[in-house]
Amino acid sequence: MNERELVKRAKAGDYDAFTTLVNDNKNKIYSLAIKMIGNTEDAEDIVQETLLKAIDNIDRFREESSFGTWLYSIALNQARALLTKQKQTDLKPIEEYLPTKSAEDLHKKSIPNLFEWKDPHKELEDEELKKIIDKVIDSLPWKYKEVFLLRYLEELPIKEIAKIINESVASTKSRVLRAKLAIREQLSKVFKERYGEKMFRLH
Amino acid sequence: MGKKCLDYINDLNDYIDGQIDSDLYQEIENHLKQCENCRIMIDTLKKTVSLCREGKELKELKLPPPLEKKLNDMLKKHWQEKFGK
Predict the structure, then answer these.
(1) In chain A, residues 85-104 whose CB comes closer than 8 Å to chain B
(2) How far apart are CA A95 and CA B5, in angstroms?
(3) Same structural domain, A150 and A182
(4) What is the pLDDT of residues A20-71, one digit of tens each?
(5) Is the domain of A54 the same as that of A136?
(6) Domain for residue A75, yes or no?
(7) What is the number of H-type helices and E-type strands within chain B?
(8) Above 50 in pLDDT, residue A180?
(9) In the predicted model, is pLDDT for residue A161 greater than 80?
(10) What's the number of domains chain B is made of?
């Protein structure tokens, strides 16, 4: 039975159809929640609340996205609610992350902050690198963390992420890029603080 | 990075993810040949993504069986309260 038929039946009160839809997605939600929140206890609460909300609101599911995408958006709202107390600092405009910001800077001979990384694996133990990355991703403001995880860990297409976060495709792309730039900046800081110039090829 | 670079900025996601139409791809490639700043930016952003993917758990995690049982019971009860069956 295809998803559309299952949704139709679930809306009419068929519990078996609902559980089939849920079974296809509940581990995905659990995995996402752990990546977003970082602990299993809260992730379990998010799964539970997400599925209870799905029951409450199934009549309102308009089928403009897949059932899984709809569940993802409920789960992210639940996770966001859980973390509302966490401070959400906004990120700088994209231009602020770029090595140089103005046309006048373009051909200057010396740009002190411009560098590229050497292979971090050559300088760092894998476990240490993992810890750094976890910390950097966890420190991202929520709206950037969610799109980054959905795009690069869940590997969802931009169009689907746009539906989940209820933003335009253009705005979603911009947010994903800002997330990457922010992570890169944070990684650069950590690498530089801990390992100095040996992590970089300076120009 | 100047005005020209900023013109490309919003297409960089697609470029980095390899999802870009061939004309724009070629245009960006040509730009990269001339612009070291953009080359470095693309290189470090690609590394950022690959490091994060290596550093985070990618496989799908499974709900622990005791939780799954508890969850199933709870959902069924909630369903019955809503639909009365």
Answers:
(1) 94-95, 98-104
(2) 10
(3) yes
(4) 999 989 999 999 898 888 888 899 999 999 999 999 999 999 888 899 999 9
(5) no
(6) yes
(7) 5, 0
(8) yes
(9) yes
(10) 1
Question: Given an 8 Å threshold on Cβ–Cβ distance, is B51 in contact with A120?
Answer: yes
Measure the CA–CA gap between A187 and B5, rounded to whole angstroms: 23
Q: Does a structural domain hold residue A103?
A: yes
Domain of A176? 94-202
| Same-domain check for residues A145 and A104 | yes
Is the Cβ of A38 closer than 8 Å to some Cβ of chain B? no
More confident residue, B18 or A96: B18
Q: Record the pTM.
A: 0.82
Angstrom distance (rounded) from CA A173 to CA A73: 17
Domain carrying residue B29: 3-83
Residue among A21, A57, A116 with most chain B CBs within 10 A, to mutate: A116
DSSP element (H, E) containing A137: helix A126-138
Q: Which of residues 50-79 of A touch B (CB under 8 A)?
A: 51-52, 55-56
Domain boundary among A39, A56, A82: A82
pLDDT tens-digit map of A79-133: 988 877 555 566 777 767 665 555 445 444 434 455 678 888 887 788 888 888 8
**Residues A128 and A47 occupy one common structural domain:** no
Euclidean distance between CA atoms A70 and A81, whole angstroms: 17
CB–CB of A143/A162 below 8 Å? no
A15 and B85 within 8 Å at the Cβ level: the answer is: yes
Of the partner residues A27, A35, A55, the one whose CB lies closest to the CB of residue B62: A27
Contacts of A111 in chain B (CB under 8 A): 37
CATH code of the domain containing A44: 1.10.1740.10
Q: Is the ipTM beyond the 0.85 threshold?
A: no
Q: What is the mean pLDDT of chain B?
A: 84
